Every structure is written in C-alpha cells, then in structure tokens.
Amino acid sequence: MITPGVCKYDVILQNKYFLRECIQSLSLEDRLSEIAYCAKCKLAVPGNQFTGLPVITPGMEIRVSGTRFGESKYSYLIQPGVVWTFNIDNKARRNWDLTIYDRLIYLAKSDDQYLFEEGSTAASRIEQICSDWNIPVLSIPDTGVGLARDVVRAKSIWSIMQDQLKETAEKDGKLYTIRMQPDGLELFEIGSNKDPWVFEFPVNLVSVSQKQTLDGAVTKVKVLGKGSEGELAPVESETSADTDKYGTIQKVVQYKKGTDADTTSKKANNMLGGIQETVTVESIDINTIRNGDKVLVEGWPDGLYVISVRHTCGSPGKMQMELASLEYIKRKFYHAEKSV
Q1: Which InterPro entries does this one have (predicted)?
Q2: Quick one: CA torsion of 73, 79, 81, 87, rounded to 10 degrees?
C-alpha cells in the first residue's frame, strides 16, 4: 500500500524571495513534444506582506523546489528557471499567475544554423550545440548511429536537436528525449529509468481510460525517387500492411539526396501502423516522474511510457499521465516530416 507523502513546495525568486506562504496552487508539466519543464504557479500576496518584494517581470530568475516523493529534504525541481509569463489581477493586484520554464525554453525560442558532417552522431551534434549555447551537460550517452550530412538554416535549436534524434530512431537506434536537470542537460533514453513505478487499483490508481483511433494510422507507404523538372517523380517502391482490415491510408516518402535505399526502406516500414492507442491515468502524485519514463499500469504488464505528465502539487498531490507503447511513441514523435 502506498501512502501519500507530505510533499512541500517552495518558489524562490532571484535566489532571495521565498514565496512558499503565498502559493495558492502549483503544477508541473512535462511533455515529449516540448523541451522545457514548465511550472504554473498562482500566488496570493497580501498588500502588507513582503516589503521590498520587486514587481515580478518576465526574464527574472526563479526556481521551484520541493520534497520528492518519499523524501523529507528539499530538492530542486526546476533550477535554473525563468519567469516567462506573468499575469496580475488588475482589480485587487493580489493574485499573481506565473508561468515558469527551465532555461531550455531558450532553445525552443531561438533559431540558428548548423552544418553537420556525414557520419557524426546525434550525441556529438547535441554536444556541439550545448557548447555553442553554453548549456551545462549532465549526461549525453553515445547514441551510436552515424547520421547523414545535414545543412540546417534558420531553424529552432530544439527542432534541430529533435531532427537528429528522429534520424537516429529511423536508423533503428534508440529513442532519446532531452531533459534539464539541476546539474545540466540530460539525454535520456526513453524507458531507461530503474525500478518503474507500479500503478494498481486501489493502491495508488484513481482512474484509467483508453483511446483507440485510426487517426495517425498508415497502411500504405509509397516511396518516390528523384524526379525530373516538370515531371512526376518515379515510384521506387510501395509497402503496405492491413489494408484489408483498415482500408488504404497512404503516405508518401519523397526523395532526398544522399539518403541510401536501406534508410528509406526502414523509414517506410516504420511508418506503417494500424489502430493508435493512448492511455490516460489519474493517480496519486509521484512528483519524480518525467516524460520518457516507463511505468507499469494494471492491465498493461509489459509497461507503458510517459508522453506527458501533469503534477498537481500538494499533500497529497494528484497526477495525470498520458501513456503509450514504445512503438506508438516512435511513430508519433520520432518520424521525420522532412523528405528522405
């Protein structure tokens, strides 16, 4: 039986102002589709309190700390962080709503250009970007797959990193997600967390719902070769599966210079998939769970993987997770939209 712990939280502005007593609500949100960990905090500040507290403005340094599930000491949850959006109730000027991100948000909002040489790995390319942008590194394991030469112009840094991870996955490499930890950037292999949390009724599980759809399904892939100007591109190959069962839902893979036939074939096969299933779980909050973690849910003994998680912080807190299989995640998040 898991007993909800007494988790405590604090929000510290400019490493000086402790806002714990002002917190009305606090949530932490983490998604595979986004690079930065996000906190949303509602503060109620009496007029006679915090003499000298500065007016909060976007760009200010801020951090979120708390006691991790099962622990009693405070740890960093978002550090370093930045105030990104700040709303004030204009009637009483007492209710303050903050949106806080870890500093990887700057990689999502900034563009750059890069030239990556043939054969270099996603790990080496991400290390290069971190060096250029003065991002401290905690852990970047060798991704082990040589990638094609890539000339990138005017694209967000986050998208550039994602493209390298997508190509790694399409060449049968492992799936990785980028997360910021207090000690630096972590390139985390999806599902590699030790001792995954187990969720069961009535121990720690409140509700489970499933969604199945053909949205996103692909039953036929047509691979196009290099076409002459003014003419249709030749069809190099066609791959299909389950068209009798689900009908024909076709996608096209276009020619890209420098990509070999084996890579193109792998991409086509990886695109095929029928019914798409996601699972939504509501449970007691385990505030250490992040995107990419593996969890074990009653009814899915092989485990599912976290697409997104929202921690509603409190004692006890609540948690909502969107989960899926590794195959779904690969197709949904690690399929490059660019031509191959």
Answers
A1: YqbQ/XkdQ
A2: -10
Q: What CATH code is assigned to 107-189?
A: 3.55.50
The CA distance from 311 to 77, in Å, is 12
Helix, strand, or coil here: 137?
strand
CB atoms within 10 A of CB 166: 21
Residue at token pair 């990556």: 116
| SS3 assignment, position 24 | strand
**What is the DSSP annotation of 212-245?**
EESTT-B-EEEEE-PPPTTSPPPEEEEEE-SHHH
Question: Measuring CA to CA, how many Å separate 212 from each of 278, 319, 324, 328?
Answer: 7, 22, 11, 12
* 220-224/250-253 β-pairing: parallel
CATH: 3.40.50.1110, 3.40.50.1220, 2.40.50.140, 2.30.300.10. Which one for 9-103? 2.30.300.10
Instruction: For CATH 2.30.300.10, list the domain ranges present in the chain.
Output: 9-103
pTM, entire model: 0.90
Q: Which residues contact 241 (CB under 8 A, 6 or more apart)?
A: 219, 272, 274
- CATH 3.55.50 domain range(s) in the chain: 107-189
Adjacent-strand bridge partners of 64: 11, 78
Quick one: which of 47, 69, 46, 43 has its CA closest to 56?
43
Question: Over the stretch 24-60, which tens digit does the pLDDT of each residue have?
Answer: 999 999 999 999 999 999 998 766 555 567 888 999 9
Distance of CA 96 to the CA centre of its chain: 27
Distance from C-alpha of 46 to C-alpha of 44, rounded to nearest angstrom = 7
Phi, then psi, of 47 in degrees rounded to 5: -65, -25
Grade residue 99 by pLDDT with cuts at 50, 70 and 90. Answer: very high
How far is the C-alpha of 319 from the C-alpha of 337, rounded, in Å?
32
Return the pLDDT at 184: 96
Residue with the two structure tokens 């700040």: 86
